[in-house]
Amino acid sequence: MQLFWPICASLAVAQLFADAQESVFAPEEQVFLLSFVDATNGRLLNALPLTSSPFPLPANLPDPITILFQPDPEHIRGLPPIVSVDFTVTDTSGENVFHHQASLPPYSLFPRDGSVFEGAAKASRALRVLQEASDHSFLLDGDHTLEAAVLRDGDASPTIYTVNLTVDTGGSSPLTNTTLALTGIQAANGESSSQWVGSLKAAAAKAGIAFGSVICQAPLDAQNNPRCRYGGEAAYQQIVKEELGVISAERECKWWTTRTDADLDNIAFDACEQIFRLAKANGQKARFHTLLWYMDVNYGNVGVWLPTLSAADKRNQLVGHIERMVERFRTPEYPNLIHWDVVNEALDDFQDADQLRKGGYRLRDTVWYPDIPEFIDLAFVTASKAAKAADALHDTPMPPMKLIYNEYWCESADGYSAGKSDALYNLMKGMKRRAIPVDGVGFQSHVTHDYDLFDGIRANMRRLGALGLEVQFTELDVSCGRWEHVGAPEGTGNWIKCGDDNEWGPEIEKKQADVYRRFMRVCLEEPNCTAFLTWGIVDKSTWLNRDMFRPDYPLLFDAAYRPKQSYIALRDEMLAVNQTVARWA
């Protein structure tokens, strides 16, 4: 009997692979995440979900890899914490060829030591586990099954998850396939992709505007919490490289991704630096986002230690953090890193009309205010001094470092954002009067498909321009969902999801494209509008596909990396420019 079972198992597994049809996993079923490992330091680079079974792994891996058990956090809320994950890999004979138990997050197929991962990399015809002497050829020589036995707190037995792995020699693996982008879609006027001329980056260069997007790469934050899930897909990387002239980190440079404690000598720069290295390799400009954001205390573990500090210690943290970030990245290695978001979202959503008329404004109560009343001025002055110190140290000519204040619900001087836009103007006017080194303002511009306040945006841009300030669209996305009451600030009123009474389809997509087009038109016509960035590029990675907002489709490419009407609208608007505006440098 002991001999008979392995023979039966061998035949059963072999037949299973022979008969298997590809099974595509729904988002909630995508529990495995393949992550690339930096062979030089063992850090995770970027990742992609295993979206089908069998999942095709390329015969030639571009980087070492590991596989994480890491479901999308949106689909596992309320489940008990994980006690352990037992990974087992079997071949078609049913033989166990690899096993590893992980008891701490992130749960990795290959062992790790803290944030340093061992990974599988191609070595001859096999995969060698880095830092080990033994070869593991199970990912290259034939088909295999990966099993994760997940034991949660209180469970009597583990839940079993499986995915079949196969070797792809035809270039169809999401790790290497870049043919999905810019194919298979037609514009409303019948224009096919084969008739397109250039990319968004090329069109922007013709129009004389810096065009780009935030991107998300790091699959984990500094506390090993799951974050970005699609940065490792080859089609995503192709779009980033070919379509964007500027890239910015969505999360990688924020406090909650770089800080785990109050030790200023323990800042984790790696994930942030990865963005700037990518921009340099792609020949792109880069943007730093962000040196100071009050919401950092709501993510990672920043909220555990930062709010407990005294006002004096918070001041030291603010100054020290900014100094170290500027010291690290204001170097000749990154001359393409020009714009820095210094302070993000300091203004209160609700402003007092009398206070505004007197030239004042209301700041939101945060971890920084009112403990440090002048924290905005302090942040900008610190960044400016640190930049000058870095420039003197390196003694190498570099482009000026532009310091930006970034804010939402402030774009238009009319409509629901009028009060906050007046507060923004008063804040900037006061900073200029006090000779605080601020170079520009970022309008985040998270809007809905029925947005129509463009005259107010133009008026706001012009009055800020009169103060000597650049204006940039820094986080534009155009949602299908909307607030029940126009102008209801985030967190108030009811959010009407896409599909509740405004089903996503050609009509809303056309409205969305028109909003994108009109934003671009304002920017192209106003000389102090110096950059145009979207808050992501692919619908499946948008922040609006979580919590109460999901589902939504606010960006330029759909989940299959096909360009939408908004892509075509932006490209056509830029290509239509006959005479470039003399834009501010």
From TrEMBL:
Signal peptide: 1-20
A Pfam family per the record: Glyco_hydro_10
Catalytic activity: Endohydrolysis of (1->4)-beta-D-xylosidic linkages in xylans
Keywords: Carbohydrate metabolism, Glycosidase, Hydrolase, Polysaccharide degradation, Signal, Xylan degradation
Gene Ontology BP, a term: xylan catabolic process
PANTHER family (UniProt xref): BETA-XYLANASE (PTHR31490:SF88), GLYCOSYL HYDROLASE (PTHR31490)
Protein's name in the database: endo-1,4-beta-xylanase
Source organism (scientific name): Vitrella brassicaformis (strain CCMP3155)
Phylogenetic lineage: Eukaryota, Sar, Alveolata, Colpodellida, Vitrellaceae
